[in-house]
Amino acid sequence: MTFLQTIKKKKLTLISILFFLYILLNFLEGERGLLSYLEKKQIHENLLNEEIKLINQLKVVKLKNKLLSDNLDLDFIEILYREKFMAGKSKEKVYMTIEK
After folding, report:
1. Which H helix or E strand runs over 75?
2. Whole-prediction pTM value?
3. CB atoms near residue 68 (< 10 Å)
4. pLDDT in tens, 21-30
């Protein structure tokens, strides 16, 4: 009976401890907890890096499109022709690079 009497006397303390543990667990875990926040922050940083990479690729494609549209850049067309068909002029040595 002493255990039950102790619980009855310390009821407020026991409820306070349980409430504190509940708040602590919800702070760390859960959908809006600290661990979830850190994971979402990492995902956000990865998406920002991917966005920057895609913007740079888009700029390159726009530049190439501009070179091939209204004002034809014959030097750029020659570079593309040589890369695509591995062609060269007479008495010119052509070296191929193997990409892995």
Report:
1. helix 74-85
2. 0.51
3. 13
4. 998 888 888 7
